[in-house]
Amino acid sequence: MAVDRNQVLRSAAALLSRKATATMDEVARAAGIGRATLHRQFAGRDALVRALEALGLEELEQAHDRARLDEGPEDEAVRRLIAEVEPVAPLLSFLVTENQLFEGDEQNEGWARIDARIVALFRRGQENGVFRIDLTPAWLSEAFYGLIGSGAWAVHDGRVAAKDFQYMIAELLLGGARRSVEK
Question: How does pLDDT run across 104-150, given as a tens digit for each residue?
């Protein structure tokens, strides 16, 4: 029986997004395969996490593309981005807490590409008077990641209804980022 690597990754992502400390045995069970089969696909946890990183970055890049970040008002582009990132939010919340992905010289350049796109969106919004200029675009980008990850955990834990995910993140992020109009 051939093992569908993508299906194994998706099963691992679903499990690790809920239980970041899951063992390789638990990942194998969740994927419906034996531990030896899992190890033939991924030499160990590090290899599995790196494969999940590649999957997550691919899905994030696709979400950015679908959100059309360069089109229309910047606050609306942020809302579209939140909506497009929602399906990958649990995986993203797992990945951004995996220190091994952000240490040393082995950092995947995909993170820099993702960051650059979000930072450019916030910078453009500042230049167009939509977003506050006292908060750096890099900080607004970090706030975006933090809210997406926190929102994913809050939904998972039942503290927030899934239907409210986009609204609550957009309102908090944009409420703090928008430039106020002084009268």
Answer: 667 788 888 999 999 999 999 999 999 999 999 999 999 999 999 89
- What 3-state DSSP class applies to 131? strand
Task: Determine the Cα–Cα distance for residues 44 and 27; give it in Å rounded to an integer.
Answer: 11
What are phi and psi for residue 178, nearest 5 degrees?
-65, 145
Cβ atoms of residues 7 and 38 within 8 Å = no
- Whether 183 shows a pLDDT value over 60: the answer reads no
Amino acid at 144: F
CB-based contact 151:169 (threshold 8 Å): yes
Cα 17 to Cα 165: distance, rounded to the nearest angstrom = 16
Burial of 118 (0-12, 13-18, 19+ CB in 10 A): buried
Predicted local distance difference test score (pLDDT) of residue 178: 79
- What 3-state DSSP class applies to 21? coil
Closest C-alpha to 137, from 124, 147, 146: 124
